[in-house]
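Handout, section 4.2: multi-component inputs.
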Amino acid sequence: MNKQNVTIYDVARESGVSMATVSRVVNGTSNVRPSTKKKVMDVIEKLNYRPNEVARGLASKKTTTVGVIIPDVTNNYFASLARGIDDIAAMYKYNIILANSDGKEKKELKVINTLLSKQVDGIIFMGNEITPAIRKSFKDANVPIVLAGSVDSKKTVPSVNINYKNAIENVTSELINHHNKKIAFVSGDLRHSINADHRLKGYCDALSKHDIQYNQNYVFETNESYKDGYEISQNIVDQKISAAVVTDDSLAAGILNWMTDHNISVPDDFEIITSNDTQITEMTRPKMSSITQPLYDIGAVAMRLLTKIMNGDIEDKYKENDVLLQYGVINRESTRK
Amino acid sequence: MNKQNVTIYDVARESGVSMATVSRVVNGTSNVRPSTKKKVMDVIEKLNYRPNEVARGLASKKTTTVGVIIPDVTNNYFASLARGIDDIAAMYKYNIILANSDGKEKKELKVINTLLSKQVDGIIFMGNEITPAIRKSFKDANVPIVLAGSVDSKKTVPSVNINYKNAIENVTSELINHHNKKIAFVSGDLRHSINADHRLKGYCDALSKHDIQYNQNYVFETNESYKDGYEISQNIVDQKISAAVVTDDSLAAGILNWMTDHNISVPDDFEIITSNDTQITEMTRPKMSSITQPLYDIGAVAMRLLTKIMNGDIEDKYKENDVLLQYGVINRESTRK
DNA sequence: ATGAAAGCGCTAACAG
DNA sequence: CTGTTAGCGCTTTCAT
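Output:
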């Protein structure tokens, strides 16, 4: 019942060596004679000594913890990335401080600051948009930062993503090939680069390649919620639109269920293809066709990249560092063959 | 471009006071003459000084960070609790170190240790089971611990939950009232106290109150996955079971969809009621009836309780501290009226 | 109201 | 291979 925490000094005294030696055996750095090493280890065991990482952090200027900024853990897309991040972090002996931001700039800025004051060794940022203020605080931070599943329109920060533009272009083309003339593009906030510069661009490119006129009425801006999907569906149908490319699975589920609830058969009368291939694509009836993204891997690779940068293993960290992972498309039941 | 971080010493010098005074204005503790306070604040602003929380943690023995152990962030049930935890933590100026355990004792033990070595001020634990080893490490930890959405059969740790037994008993009774004679109980690992001692108990109590014979063949032990639900359904149907009480929403969705896929009408031919009221209960067709739990609140209340204990605001922290939040039942479309 | 000084527990030269 | 000695940046008595 050692209430008082035992320190390195206690171990040193008890085993008749200096604290430097204890530090050495604990860190496995530099050589220590096997016999004294064993002696120290025994005392550590006996006293149940556990190094104080805070003291270590102060002395070494490394905390072995990284900050992870996430819009909302409750969102399966981001949660999947987070899982990949944490697993790789654990693999490299890092811990993560997880902070929800709701994708709000103000919260993001605040949390970046507290993370920095906690001396994290690096930050993984997930967010809808890298605003100028965010970009500035990234620049001022003296720790490396990597984006996961998030794009920086200015490409000023290393990131890992898929090629959203190509992916959306692919599925839009497929829908066009199914003879759909009017195809909706249903996304989140169009002020966000990921939606405007990448996904909408892909949609537009597909249209123009097939000589289809772009119609602004067919693009729907939402909050990417199930409810939003359900609510905009009437409007979609009223315009005689026959297919939709959707950027979020919950959102897509809302549209799908509205159709079903209104006796519009999917995929016979209406086709839907969504973007994130989260678990819910399998749970709806019909199951949803989707772009497939290696969600876990995006997080994992981002964390791996961060460890490399923190380690100085990367020649030029300002160099091009936008890794694009492979995406795919899975045709389930919300699209025709 | 202040590459070198500015320290408390720098602002002390720059503003012509001692570091003790700077510390005082930063912490707002004890009195400082308004004029000198302003002077210091200005310098802090000018130098863009940000207190080093690690140094502060070492000196004060408080890190204002708490550890959160979670089986899997990717699981919406736990993610919802985590969101409640983080929000309240932020409200009280704490950060959370989030660690996934997969509910595996070995990982849990390991992570408890690293959390403790990082000097967290407290821990919120979510897990399926408090094993003797876990209980021991909790006892040895010299920081408070609170369970969220998790039960300790020995009631040795403060916790916040709902009354799982009563909830399951309620819904089972309802199914019995719908004239179902054979009702399945589909749960996760029955070695876990929450399933065996609480939920199964509730199921049994409902049966016995209605003079229905308990039949072991009607209880299904699973991994609580969608896939498991889908796979056990044939067995359920083969036994002429006409309703199921399920402990997890994905699991329930699996059963529901299997029924639908096999032309068994829910709820006409088969009734299902699930337990967690996560988002997917609204996404399936028919929508699933469910026990409703205040998921976010369970996390939030757990965190609030932890802050109180950390603060010493609770008289006797060894006293009965099992808070039970209100649950409800919502009848959607997978049960008859 | 403010300053001086002693740590907090550990790492990291620097000696030897 | 091992010990000595400075700090790391801040909080916290104890004086004044």
